[in-house]
Amino acid sequence: MASAEWTEEPMTDIAGEGEAEGLMAGYYGSDAGSSPETMGLLGGSDSFGAPGPSGAGEAYYSLEAPPSSGAEVQQYSISGHEPSTVFYGGQSTSYSTYSSMFGGVNSLWIMGAWSWSQYATCPLGAYLQLLAYSSGGGSTTFYEIYESGRVEVDSYGFWPGYSSISFYANEPGRHILLFIANNQPSNAIIVDVSSGGWPPGPGPSPSPSYARVTVRSSWLSGYTVTVDDAVTYNDVSDGRLDGIVSFTVPGNQYHSVKITSPGYMRSYYRFFRSGYAYTLGM
Question: Is the pTM value of this prediction over 0.70?
């Protein structure tokens, strides 16, 4: 059995944006909300050493400013808005499992449509929605540590339970954020802000917004590939039993790829860049 190996190279046969949307429809679903062209996608950790966990297919930033509501801190009702998944410490779990283990402690999250994370990447000028939990609320000291070492300190009044606050990516580099309430610190979250990314003014958005993945084996056929424990492909999806499975995933984020066959299972978790083709040779 040959050892598995990933290769990465820029795509040379990039699909047009309309075709890209069709390729991604199977992943996002026909009722998906914000597309990758209007919302940014998360980055996270993998075996190659990049920091932080990630959510798959999730949008964590917007290039549009949130609606003004007056107060910087808003009360947030968790009832009916629980995330399906939370990503922290290089792992993921359900919200109910996380709450049963860590409920009641001060915590800080980056909020997406269906998941929460403690790490995200975004371009300069983007907005992220942060969600803070403090059982008692009250006076809170909020810290933002810039890559240069500069520390900005703000004081807020948090609500008991969950409070939401907007974060603006005003400077490239790493931003580390945490708060202290009732003399107890929260966890830290990390936002890596790039100086590139989509221009806030007129100009083309990045194309494509997906990565192409091919799993290729010279000895194993009839296997199944499961992406993010949500989407399944198999060796005969293209009508040929040839040991090759090809598909696309949302780009500029992390995904799990699991290969299964009777008596065989391998799982991988890594970052996939938009516009790149990845091949897993087995």
Answer: no
